[in-house]
Amino acid sequence: MSNTSLEIQLKTLPNQPGVYQYFDSDGKILYIGKAKNLKKRVSSYFNKQHDYGKTRVLVKKIATIKHIVVDTETDALLLENNLIKKYQPRYNVMLKDDKSYPWICIKNERFPRVFSTRRVIKDGSEYFGPYTSMKTVSTLLNLIKGLFQLRTCNYDLSQEKIDANKYRVCLEYHLGNCKGACEGYETETEYHANIDAIKEILKGNFKDSLSQFKQQMKDYAEDMQFEEAQKIKEKIEVLENYQSKSTIVNPKISNVDVFSIVSDESYGYVNFLQLSYGSIIRSHTLEIKKKLQETDVELLELAITELRQRFNSKSKEIYVPFKVNIGEHIKTTIPKLGDKKHILDLSLRNAKYYRMERFKQVKITDPDRHVNRIMAQMKADLRLNEEPRHIECFDNSNIQGTNPVAACVVFKDGKPSKKDYRHFNIKTVEGPDDFASMEEVVFRRYKRLLDEDQPLPQLIVIDGGKGQLSSALKSLDVLGLRGKIAIIGIAKRLEELFYPDDPIPLYLDKKSETLKIIQQLRNEAHRFGIEHHRNKRSKSALNTELETIPGIGEKTVVELLKTFKSARRVSNAKLDELEDVVGKSKADKIYNYYHN
């Protein structure tokens, strides 16, 4: 792969946490790494001189960069660990499977124990994690121990053995750390109520536990036990600042394929996440070119079959965003909430990022395709009969009714065509009347285009709501252009798009490219109009100042401006320069006015 291609890949990486993978020209994986910011981290490999020989060799071999976006740095760390174990790239430190991350286990027992472990055993027990730090696990276990009195022994506490007085309470009972379930001093119902509360803490739901902590702290304070109250306060602070759960790995989600799709007028992008034993081991996004306006369902069914064959997936279950028909032998799940939905959302995020990066790459390498896609999207979004290759936008500018002006900006193929911008000084309207001003400038603009046989736009955008749109329509009616040019108004407050003879506005997705182009048009028209208005006010103020000089009349002002072009230059002129234009007497008056 060429250096140019690699540069494009680097430019379009997201500024998000995630895992990056380097491949050589043969498609063999070289290195897997994690990053807080993918773009900065990956770019750093190519932007600086590396002292270490192996790193230099690695960078020279890189031909392709792939990445997976995740939510947090912790997720990136866990995913990196899983992928290194799976693929064992040449330039990574090898991770042995027995060096696993710690979990918190709630044992499948009559009176469950809660403890840390590095082994996940499928015996009905519940596991939470994994955690990237044993310190985090210890903190959580200490919190749980401080709040709940749980057993730590490994006795078989069956009802028969308890009834037979098989066990005796130990030191933990006498220290107040256990309620003595082994001698029947605590019921199974009471114990499991505590276990349910612990599960909520481990899931990240601290609300009930925090309330219980706060009440406990309040009780200690009322009993004047301030040291105990302080200990509880510290635990509350730890809980409030702690995020307990990772989205990357959940041992219950085992051997599953996850698929999601985003699409536009021309292409569909299907992301595939492969999960094995609760870990993401693969992410791949497939780009599919539409031929016959295929639906998302059709594209996703095609992609699922292709991707499962390509990567030889044997998973019996898939997660998808909507119902698909890929055969009865595969279980299809459409997650609505919880961990499964979180994994599906992660897949969708990766599809969206891939799509954005492809747009950026295409914009650089194939601008025609980029423009065609944008135009097709605008035609569909705005319900137009033809693509808006030529768009014109109008805006009025006046401040307290002074120097009313208007601006017309022109976009061609979605980009500003500044040579076609036009300013208008309002001629027929007295005072600040936006509606009448809009009617005037729209009439003047298209009357001139018709008289000069110039091409008309496919779309007119009016900066304003129903009132300004109606005024513009009056001029199109007079010129016989109504129905021949599409016209819409955009209201500033809620970005509402108004159409002729339709009282209900259209609302576009705030992130849509169509809305962004219309906003850019509106902002550019506003900027261009304000600039002209400011210049006109400035010129007017200076001209008025020249006329206020005693003994200087209108004809003299005209002569001065013909020669010096502006009142500012007149004020800075030397006495002999002024004498050359208006004679000694008037030159003295002007020079003395500005310099005395």
TrEMBL record:
Ranges for domain GIY-YIG: 15-93
Domain UVR: start-end pairs: 207-242
Annotated InterPro entries: GIY-YIG_endonuc, GIY-YIG_endonuc_sf, GIY-YIG_UvrC_Cho, RuvA_2-like, UVR_dom, UVR_dom_sf, UvrABC_protein_C, UvrC
Keywords noted in UniProt: Coiled coil, Cytoplasm, DNA damage, DNA excision, DNA repair, Excision nuclease, SOS response
Main location: cytoplasm
Xref: SMART domains: GIYc (SM00465)
Domain UvrC family homology region profile positions: 262-476
Coiled-coil annotated spans: 290-317
Subcellular location: Cytoplasm
HAMAP family assigned: UvrC
SUBUNIT field: Interacts with UvrB in an incision complex.
Family: Belongs to the UvrC family.
Function: The UvrABC repair system catalyzes the recognition and processing of DNA lesions. UvrC both incises the 5' and 3' sides of the lesion. The N-terminal half is responsible for the 3' incision and the C-terminal half is responsible for the 5' incision.
Cited NCBIfam families: uvrC
Protein name: UvrABC system protein C
Gene symbol of the encoding locus: uvrC
